[in-house]
Write a structure and sequence with these properties.
283 residues; mainly alpha
Amino acid sequence: MRQKSTESAAPPIAKAGSIPTQGNDIDLLQARAQASPGDANNWATLGDALFAKGRFDEAIVALEKGSVAAPDRADIWSALGEARVMASPRDPMPSAALTAFRKALTIDPKDPRSRYFTAVARDLRGEHQGAIDDWLALLKDTPPGATWENDLRRTITQVAKINKIDVTEKLAALAPTSNHPAMPSGLIGGAAIPGPSAEQIRAAAALTPSQQDSMAQQMVSQLEGKLRANPGNLDGWVMLMRSRKTLGEEAKASRALADAIAANPAAAARLQSEAAALGIAKL
């Protein structure tokens, strides 16, 4: 799940990954789809390949044709909704995207991508508790180790923190079991970034609000320094964007997105998805 507003996550959050990508030759995929316009699989594959290359407007066209060929395919409708989100330069949740997600849910109420994004829509409307409840319900239904699990958890934590909603117990109740450890994010690859230690958490709790803010700024500055030394760390860029968002620094969050894309142009679509999940606008 790649999202353009909250992934939340991760991501997109959250992408469900229900449509397979076959091959890297866009021209070949287009030829196949045009040769068999009634074959929804060809249009879905083409749409997914175009999406992966950041060609969102073209992905929309392909997925719309796929939805006509197979109007009962929830995965195609949800992919279409995501493409419409990513193609929108300003609106983090265009009405046409929400319509596609809702259509997918009428076909399959458990479609994870559509559930994720409709919760994003609630968050954007100011229904933060409702959005978190929806994401928690999705997390409960998420198979252990699903590729979007970590991004979904980060989205819940981030939105809860921004809006001062306590989700500690609810998240703990949905913690992955030791037999099924969560897999790395399917949206952003690479090594995981460790969180604060128990000692750091206890130390932060003893500080005044102003001291906590100062500590947060220091940690963000340290992260920026690490990214200058290792600009290929995609998880680090996502963490920086989230941190700036949490601190209310919208312009700096957008700047982090721009810098991340400049350093990693091949991962632009993924980074935009993560930014979208946080409601971070492009510069």
